[in-house]
């Protein structure tokens, strides 16, 4: 076996992630974690399902009163999620 140039483990892992096309899956996980941090623990516990597709974050909540309360602060939540991520991944939030 021939020796090749040294590469940092981070570069090798990034190359593998790109090769297997896991980047989008990791991005979704980051967005879901940012939702939990942006809305807090209580609202996060009432979140039944999160789904992200093409810039839209779909959130299913267990409480209609909570959904109505969050509806008036969607722009603030979207801004906070994008700030936590460091880039503008979420363009719109849809509450169900």
In words, what does this structure look like?
This protein is of the alpha+beta class. The chain has a single domain (9-95), classed as GMP Synthetase, Chain A, domain 3 (2-Layer Sandwich). 56% of the residues lie in helices and 18% in strands. It has five helices and three strands. The protein has helices at residues 9-20, 23-39, 41-45, 64-71, 74-85; strands at residues 47-53, 56-61, 92-95. A three-stranded mixed β-sheet has the order 1-2-3. Strand 1 and strand 2 form a beta hairpin. The chain is elongated. It starts with 8 loop residues before the first helix and ends with a strand. The model has no long low-confidence stretch (mean pLDDT 90).
- Number of structural domains: 1
Q: Uncertain segments of ≥5 residues (pLDDT<50)? A: none
Instruction: Describe the largest sheet.
Output: 3 strands, mixed
CATH-derived architecture: 2-Layer Sandwich
The gyration radius over C-alpha positions equals 18 Å
Beta strand % = 15-25%
Oligomer: single chain
As a percent range, the share of helical residues equals: 55-70%
**Structural class of the helices, strands and pairings?**
alpha+beta
Note the run of SSEs as H and E. Answer: HHHEEHHE
Brief write-up:
With 96 residues, the chain is an alpha+beta fold. The chain is built from five helices and three strands; from the N terminus they run αααββααβ. It has a single domain, classed as GMP Synthetase, Chain A, domain 3, CATH 3.30.300.
Map the helices and strands.
Elements: H1 9-20, H2 23-39, H3 41-45, E1 47-53, E2 56-61, H4 64-71, H5 74-85, E3 92-95
Parallel strand pairs: 2-3
Antiparallel strand pairs: 1-2
Helix pairs in contact: 2-5
